[in-house]
């Protein structure tokens, strides 16, 4: 693997900057060989998947392709870099995880900070501003909006309609509502439509998620739980 990828994964922003200054073509490099987890990925894709968002901005400003798709991925699953950025932004939203107090009582704590969420979200905005296609579909037929919805389903409280036993008791906190709402609002403003047929599902996302909390974010206007 070329040295620039090692620098990216290690978060060595200045070294990446220096390598670009010495040879601007490294921005368009694609990882090969070992480790296999990076094979087929662009510098920008490695930065996003590694959570090195400042480096991702540097690469975009230096001419990295915002529409890159890792078609040579050993896994055979080719994904646009925008999909990776959306998953990163959702995972770094301020969702809540179950924990326990010293008295062994169940409680919940917020995962991630506002700055962490902001940094990840900023890359999604930057990619779209740089020309990434909001309608880009991966090799499995999933759209950008669909990828964001699937990632959101993993961090949102479980509240399927009519299935009280399936609920996990987590609160829907205001911070999570803010972080996820801006992602879905952004995608809709850029042209994504939850009412359109999702190729992977053969139905719309609105229909597929109509009984889940994800559906309220797809439609817009999600609200947090009332304060206790």
UniProtKB/TrEMBL annotation:
- Which protein are we looking at? Uncharacterized protein
- Stretches forming ANK repeats: 39-71
Tell me where on the tree of life, at the top rank, the source sits. Bacteria
Q: Which InterPro entries match?
A: Ankyrin_rpt, Ankyrin_rpt-contain_sf
Could you list this entry's UniProt keywords, alphabetically sorted: ANK repeat
The record's PROSITE patterns line, in alphabetical order, gives:
ANK_REP_REGION, ANK_REPEAT
* Organism of this sequence: Plantibacter flavus
């Amino acid at each position: 693997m070329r040295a620039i990828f090692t620098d990216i994964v290690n978060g060595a922003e200045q070294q990446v900057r220096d390598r670009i200054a010495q040879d601007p073509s490294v921005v368009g490099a694609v990882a090969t060989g070992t480790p296999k987890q990076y094979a087929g990925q662009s510098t920008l894709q490695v930065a996003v998947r590694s959570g090195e968002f400042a480096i991702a901005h540097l690469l975009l400003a230096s001419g990295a392709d915002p529409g890159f798709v890792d078609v040579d991925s050993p896994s055979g699953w080719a994904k646009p870099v925008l999909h990776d950025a959306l998953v990163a932004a959702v995972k770094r939203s301020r969702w809540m995880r179950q924990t326990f107090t010293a008295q062994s009582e169940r409680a919940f704590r917020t995962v991630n900070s506002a700055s962490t969420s902001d940094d990840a979200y900023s890359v999604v905005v930057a990619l779209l501003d740089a020309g990434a296609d909001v309608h880009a579909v991966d090799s499995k037929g999933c759209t950008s909006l669909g990828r964001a919805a699937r990632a959101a389903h993993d961090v949102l409280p479980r509240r399927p309609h009519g299935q009280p036993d399936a609920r996990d008791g987590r609160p829907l906190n205001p911070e999570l509502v803010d972080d996820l709402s801006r992602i879905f609002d952004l995608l809709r403003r850029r042209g994504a439509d939850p009412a359109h047929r999702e190729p992977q599902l053969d139905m719309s996302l609105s229909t597929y998620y109509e009984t889940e909390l994800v559906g309220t974010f797809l439609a817009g206007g999600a609200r947090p739980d009332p304060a206790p």
